[in-house]
Amino acid sequence: MANTLGIDFPCPVRRIGEGHKHHFFGYYNKSIWDPSGRYMLALEVDRMTGDLTGKEPATVGYFDLENEEIFHPIDTTTTWNWQMGNQLQWLTGDQGRRIIHNLRADPGAAQGPYPDFRSRITNLDTGESRTLPLPVYVVAPNGQYALCVSYSRFMVTHKTIGYAASTSEPELERAPADDGIYRMDLETGAYELVLSLHALTRFEAVRSMENAIHWVTHLEINPSSSRVLFIHRWTERVEDETCFLHRLFTMNPDGSGLRLLECTDHPLPQLAEDFDPDAVGTFDYEKSEYQISHPIWANDREVIVWGPHNGAIHYHLYDDAAGTVKVVGADCLTENGHMTFSSDDRWLLSDTYPDATTNERLLILYNMETGNRYNVGSFYTPPDLGKHNRCDLHPRWHPDDGQVCIDSVHEGERQLYIVDVSSLTRS
Question: Which of the 8 DSSP states describes residue 255?
Fold first, then answer.
């Protein structure tokens, strides 16, 4: 596990749950634990890998960490992928233990901008549930609204995070005026389009947008639920992610106050007729010097992201209001990862993609005060999992900052693991 970029500091690791089925959560941008730290959300599936057609069921449920780590099923869904799961997450508020997740619409119930998909809120204390008309991407911390996008568009532009259609994939315009970012009220289910893809292509447009297909991704809402960030992407070559072009934006939840933080429009030699797409490695995209990736709010006004600024790619911290940018960990945070801050903003949690030689992924803690990087774990991944079926660590914080949860396949199964980092974060 030796790494010259950081201090090796192995922390205790334990698997959650038993049995022969596989368990995972998905993305890094939301807490897997409820506020009490007792219950842990998960998806349960009967396979470690495999291509998804939209017919494969996953069980939505949770582990009770104070009762023999028993898995409690809640629902089933066919709207999931290996990378993001199915946007399963806790809802805050005083209405008991509630979760929300995505699911497929009932046959014959097609309506709305995304007729194939829905979301469902379930109260774990009462068992009551209700279905909402749009699938969610991210829920506001205040529990009042969600932002929603097209998972069918992802199936064309970024299949790793899409949901397969029930019958046939819909025909998609390149940048329609009736698709983009929807805001949905979680109490009433009312929704409105707050920013269209067509409008995005008209905002400080560049020439490379003209013949490209467009989409939005990586939507995140700040802690006070007052500001939104997202990535606008476009490409003429959806099959090669190194051809994706990127812009990082913030806006108000109603679509007003649109602010461009970064644009990485650049020449694309891959569009040449003699380019060999087979020469592109599985993780080459994640190592592109032009990529904007994995942005998240550090607090109400600052955004951290892996991306380029002034010709150099780093972990960059943007001040949304002031427009300033600074580098974080220039000498030791040197590759893309999935980053989040501890509740006191003292620790930055992240990971790495598999090493090309060892196929090991590192789990990282970076101290914002001292500038020290600690490699707290190393986890093997089989190289044959591929792009769509891979298992990133996607580390997620416990509410008390003493533990981290990851998805991993280092023991030959896709399972959840808790890493005890309290010896660092509570020192």
Answer: S
